[in-house]
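Response to reviewer comment R2.3. The reviewers asked that we include at least one raw input/output pair. We reproduce the pair for Homoserine O-acetyltransferase here without editing.
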Amino acid sequence: MSEIALETWGEHEALLLKPPRSPLSIPPPTPRTAVLFPRREGFYTELGGYLPEVRLRFETYGRLNARRENAVLVFHALTGSAHLAGTYDEKTFKALSPLEKAFGKEGWWDALVGPGRILDPALYYVVSANHLGSCYGSTGPLSIDPRTGKPYGRAFPSITIRDLARAQARLLDHLGVERATVIGGSLGGMVALEFALMYPERVKKLVVLAAPARHGPWAQAFNHLARQAILQDPGYWAGEAAPKGMALARGIAMMSYRAPEGFAARWNEAPEEGPSYLDYQGEKFLRRFHAESYLVLSRAMDTHDVGRGRGGMEAALKRLKEIPSLFVGIDTDLLYPPWEVREAARLAGARYREIKSPHGHDAFLIETDQVEEILDAFLP
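Raw output as returned:
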């Protein structure tokens, strides 16, 4: 277990006192945007919606080797971005959108990407893209609908986890990647699962961290409460990009991302700091995310069920037995309890490892030393 030193940026809400395995870091990255589904083709969503064009914002680290088999595709969580690693220089940072600037200069999994780290760009071609529907440069509710010349807003179509996976598969086409190791945590783990089931021939290895095979009633209840906090705020209906209800939504979500043990370890002597922490996280969230993207992506999470249309969960997960797979649970995860992840691993014939941490669901972002140790035994 590592001790939290500081609350900080973006999706990665905590810095640790323990430094990364290597003190070396990657050069400042440059985000790029690619049109993956142009207007002559468009993108039809699983639920029957239509987007005239789809772009994804992405970053890459390292180079694709001559055999084109060293790619690692990393999927971010609900409110993450393409900015996986490194620190933006001033020129790049100034050119970012206001929300990207609010996310911060530092990558959300920086401790794992860099020279001498588990995802070493000298060995791997690491790719990270902002999900379809998000607000950090990919096509989402903030994007301009070419049919109207105005942002999609609430007219953005409903999407599913499978839609997110399909968009990311097209990104690999764009980059000339035929096969990749796919890694994801939380919502990103759901996308990794769907990617492996939809494109098994393109998956070299699969890593699923803190994610279930189906978004069950407990997890959907948390999402429901968070959405209601937004939808019951008059500011949302008045068109505010960051209605105050979104701060409450974030507080509700944070209660599912953390655990009682972690709160007690930090604030047992000053319990009033627990509520203050949630208020702080909520206010910070208002500056860095958009309500419509939150609604779109949280609803997409609730569609997640690998067994849908595949004969049920067990039949679907059995399809993964030909892919070397690793599922990682967290002993204090309230959102996706370890038994849920362990059962998915069993049905998939996969390895199972568990992070030990008082920090709950977010431990896959916080306990980077444990994550690195677990991946180190699986990736080579």
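The radius of gyration is 19 Å. Confidence is low (pLDDT under 50) at residues 4-12. Further pairs are available on request from the corresponding author.
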